[in-house]
Amino acid sequence: MLLLTCPYCGVEADETELSPGGEAHLKRFGPGASDEDFEAYLFLRDNPKGVHLERWRHANGCGKWFLAARCTSTLEVFGTYPAQTTRPPEDVLEAIRAKRPGWEMPA
Amino acid sequence: MSDIATALGGARSQGSSSVSEAPMQGMITLRGNLADPALVAAVTGLTGAAMPSTRQITQGEGGSLGWMSPDELLILVPHQGVTDAVRDLSATLKDQHALVCNVSDARAVFTLSGPTAREVLAKLCPVDLAPGQFEAGELRRTRVAQVAAAFWVDAQGDFTLICFRSVAQYVFNLLTEAALPGGEVGVFA
What we know:
The complex is a heterodimer.
Chain A: E1 3-5, E2 12-14, E3 19-23, H1 35-43, E4 51-57, E5 65-71, E6 77-82, H2 90-99
Antiparallel strand pairs in A: 1-2, 3-4, 4-5, 5-6
Chain B: E1 12-14, E2 18-21, E3 26-31, H1 37-47, E4 57-59, E5 64-69, E6 72-77, H2 82-92, E7 99-102, E8 107-113, H3 117-124, E9 139-144, E10 147-153, E11 159-164, H4 168-178
Antiparallel strand pairs in B: 1-2, 2-8, 3-6, 3-7, 4-5, 5-6, 8-11, 9-10, 10-11
């Protein structure tokens, strides 16, 4: 069972109280972008075994979207943080690097 | 003018704890900047309750204030005063990016009281309801089995639970079943 702490209301929420939103930190390509960029933005997603940055919504709680860093194979959670950011905060990055040396943020 | 009716007509069941549908409760959803002084003054003036901090519910002479999310407040007032309260709040906040909405008729309210009230809810919600972990003054939005709900507990240990009116019968049945005699777990005893 996955437990994520919502950074907005502070609840340590059970997975069943949340709804998943897929990969985080996507860069939007809209009007004027090349077809390749637009396709990648719409459809192409990483599917890593290991550290993954994800979007989650506290659907049955405060209703807010937030971001989480977790490991897809061990379900270890490195940290959660508000969604109003384009990259994870330093303390979350530190927590990931401490447990997974050599990990690099995906481009 | 139609008669005002609650979803289940005040349904009641008695098991190891009693479940009863509460009378009509005036309920207002307020969305806006909860740090704004004018907004704080308006809602605390209306209810006499202090501004609640994260996940708290506060009580005053004229009603209660519950923290629902970083930009949402639940205002509980007597049902007969809800229309006036919405009009006054809307007028006070008309220059702000805020929403005031009367949701009294969209909700159902249940009261759960008895020695097993905590474990009845714990059977249905993914929430740590152990004494000391969940106490009076806290408002918890979560799910009850398959539907969204919110609840709080008072100093006497009685729980108040709100859910959408459309699922009132479902929630009443869930609570009744979880409180059936013989189903006591005694985990918080």
